[in-house]
Amino acid sequence: MFDYPEGIRSRIIKNINGLSMHILEAGYENNINKPCIFLLHGFPELAYSWRKILKPLSDAGYYVIAPDQRGYGHTEGWNNNFEGDISEYEISNLITDVISLVYSLEKKSIDCLVGHDFGSIVAAHAATIRPDIFKSVVLMSAPFSGMPSLELSSVNQKSDIHEDLKNLVRPRKHYQWYYSTKNANDDMYNSNQGMKKFLRAYYHVKSGDWKYNVPFKLNGWTASELEKMPGYYIMDYLSGMAEQVDIEMPSEEEISSCKWLTDKELEYYVDNFNKTQFQGGLNWYRCMVDSKVQSNLRIYSDLKIHTPSMFIAGKKDWGIFQKPGVLEKMQEDTCTNMKSCELIEGAGHWVQQEKPERVIKLLLNFLYEL
User: Fold this and answer.
1) Rg (the chain; Cα; Å)
2) Mean model confidence pLDDT for the chain
3) Are the CB atoms for 241 and 175 separated by under 8 Å?
4) Per-residue confidence at 149, pLDDT binned at 50, 70, 90?
5) Residue 353's Cα: distance from chain center in Å?
6) Domain spans of the chain?
7) How confident is the model at residue 159 (pLDDT cuts 50, 70, 90)?
8) What's the CA gap between 359 and 344, in Å, rounded?
9) What is the mean pLDDT of residues 293-322?
10) What span, in angstroms and rounded, lies between the C-alpha atoms of 159 and 360?
11) Closest CA to 24 of 43, 37, 42
12) Of 199, 218, 40, residue with least CA distance to 117
């Protein structure tokens, strides 16, 4: 059994919307009257990605829960399939997982829902649809563009972008659509460099450690603008993700000096993804880029997040600019009660792991003002 940091408990809760859900929790002693926080991870991450955040928040008086979400880690009861029905990974069911977990803890609401990366997308939709349950929300690393319009005039329908990317002088493709292909899981799970080196390179290249992460605003959703992003977002057309990030595999010196992800910590991810593979998490992307699936959300068209909100990201994270204009729209329109938008110096995409002290301070300042 893995030895989690002191003060963090690991357990399985059964009957969570059909799952046996693994959670990490802190502040669980006498938690009935404590304010409650949920932490939702992204891809390819786990509840373990919040290991540096859980205990400090509980020390401040909170009951804090981080689940392995559907398709990940020690949570069981999900289908690891490419073929067949993947509706269990639609956003509405991912939100139902979270609500079911809230209810299993004998609560009717929680004080704050925090999401990172794809967890930010789940958190944003949950806060929009069920503000009675999620009293405040913190979005991290993935800005929220809002609910689909009735006309569904989203980037998902702009299929010509893929042909335009393919026809560039350096032919390219978008990583989210690559993640939706049948080959994506096998490319990463059975990569030539092996799971450990693949994950080390992937986490490195999207972090503040990679010197070429110097993001800037793009002028629009065009191939000529998108190709300015690094290869892990706008990939070389003939490459898989493992091959793409292996180009920037960190040196032994860079690995040994990486304090935010030690070799022992990396092994936790390696062990988990060797067991589960990636298809569960990839099915989230397949649902997100499918315009027919997204059309199911049109019933919520024009709804906004009115509860208190905050956005946190690393200043070296390209993710905040990958969809041009969304960062601004989130602050000016989608979130009507956004308290602040914080870009942390020196951090890349894995902000809560790279700069945990700064993230903890921002979270506590936000929570204290609720």
Assistant:
1) 19
2) 96
3) yes
4) confident
5) 13
6) 9-150+297-368, 155-282
7) low
8) 8
9) 96
10) 40
11) 37
12) 40
Residue 159 has what DSSP assignment? T
Tell me the whole-structure pTM to 2 decimals. Answer: 0.97
In tens, the pLDDT along 11-55 reads 999 999 999 999 999 999 999 899 999 999 999 999 999 999 999
- Residue indicated by tokens 């990636």: 278
**Residue positions counted in the chain:** 370
Tokens representing residue 81 in the block? 């399939």
Give the Cα separation of 260 and 262 in Å (integer): 6
SS (H, E, C) 261-304: CCHHHHHHHHHHHHHHCCHHHHHHHHHHHCHHHHHHHHHHCCCC
User: For residues 231 and 249, what is the distance between their CA atoms, to the nearest angstrom?
Assistant: 13
Q: CB under 8 Å to 119, separation ≥6 — which residues?
A: 39, 40, 41, 42, 45, 69, 140
345 three-class SS:
coil
One-letter amino acid of 92 = S
Q: Give the SS3 label for residue 348.
A: coil
Q: Residues near 271 by Cβ (< 8 Å), separated by ≥ 6?
A: none
Assigned architecture for domain 9-150+297-368: 3-Layer(aba) Sandwich (3.40)
